[in-house]
TrEMBL record:
Presence of keyword Ion transport: no
Annotated ranges, domain LD-carboxypeptidase C-terminal: 138-268
Annotated GO MF terms: carboxypeptidase activity
Domain of life from the UniProt record: Archaea
Gene3D superfamilies membership: Class I glutamine amidotransferase-like, LD-carboxypeptidase A C-terminal domain-like
Organism: Halorubrum kocurii JCM 14978
Protein name: LD-carboxypeptidase
Family: Belongs to the peptidase S66 family.
Domain LD-carboxypeptidase N-terminal: 1-63
Length: 278
């Protein structure tokens, strides 16, 4: 709260997430945050803070954090640096282009050399477009799949369902590498609650397919991402078949990333397979 109150601080960037972050939300003062809408940057468990800010009308940015991206590999990805500079210093991000490469390799923080060691880089096959073919625009709501599920299980800090009408869902799974069938089942539960039909479009971050605790060969990772895409697409086809859905977007637990505005506008144009962040 002090960082938000301080007039000399124009942005707060999270070092990391925190599995129990939902427990600090009762101690936040929404009125103070509205009076001092400092830009907040973070992802993963920081979805708790991002959605709390969303509920109070404050835009935050679902982007990298200091330890997990900005301090790794000796230097930031050029793609990450470019979009971070746009979000920090320019009035508009503009077209959100694809990255030609990515990694989901987790760094070993117990090894000091990991900070300067380049992680395994893979070529990207590009984004995958499914669903409707009409251009849509709306405010972004969402973040990390695991946190969204946790908030619905807790049944706290949730927006009024009507507030989600016409918004765009952004969702990505974490380094926990959840079973695609479980991801589909939990999204189906949101569909049964009448929520998935409210979104005009869906952005899905490229799935991380390995973690600090468990690695997998490339063939397994490719198959995992395909199974997850299919599970999500099947659910959306049932509950919101007209919404354009874009898979393997550059946000979440694979890198590089573009900080996307939770609460800010996005335009999705299937005809040209382009995304703009005004």
């Amino acid at each position: 709260m002090d960082a938000f109150r301080d007039p000399d601080i124009s942005a707060v960037i999270a070092n990391i997430g925190g599995h129990d972050q939902i427990t600090i939300l009762p101690y936040l003062d929404g009125d103070v945050l509205r009076e001092h809408p400092t830009r907040f940057y973070g992802y993963s468990d920081n979805t708790n803070l991002a959605l709390f800010l969303w509920n109070h009308g404050i835009v935050s940015y679902y982007g990298g954090s200091t330890l997990l991206e900005y301090a790794m590999d000796g230097e930031m990805f050029e793609y990450t640096e470019e979009y971070l500079r746009r979000v920090l210093f320019e009035d508009s991000v503009g077209e959100w282009t694809e990255s030609e490469v990515f990694t989901d390799e987790a760094g070993d923080w117990e090894d000091p050399e990991s900070v300067t060691t380049t992680r395994e880089i893979e070529r990207s096959d590009g984004r995958i477009w499914r669903g409707g073919d009409e251009t849509v625009a709306g405010r972004i709501w969402g973040g990390c799949y695991a946190v969204i599920v946790e908030q619905f299980l807790a049944d706290r800090y949730l927006p009024d369902p009507d507030a989600l009408n016409g918004t765009v869902l952004a969702v990505e799974t974490s380094e926990l590498v959840p079973d695609p069938a479980v991801v589909g089942a939990n999204l189906r539960a949101l569909g049964e609650r009448g929520l998935l039909e409210r979104f005009d479009g869906v952005l899905v971050g490229r799935a991380a397919a390995r973690s600090h605790a468990e690695d997998h060969p490339r063939e397994w990772r490719v198959g995992y991402r395909e199974r997850q895409r299919d599970a999500i697409a099947d659910v959306l086809e049932t509950y919101n078949p007209n919404a354009p859905v874009v898979f393997d977007c550059e946000f979440g637990h694979t890198y590089p990333t573009c900080p996307i505005p939770i609460g800010g506008e996005v335009e999705i144009e299937p005809a040209t397979e382009s995304i703009r962040l005004p």
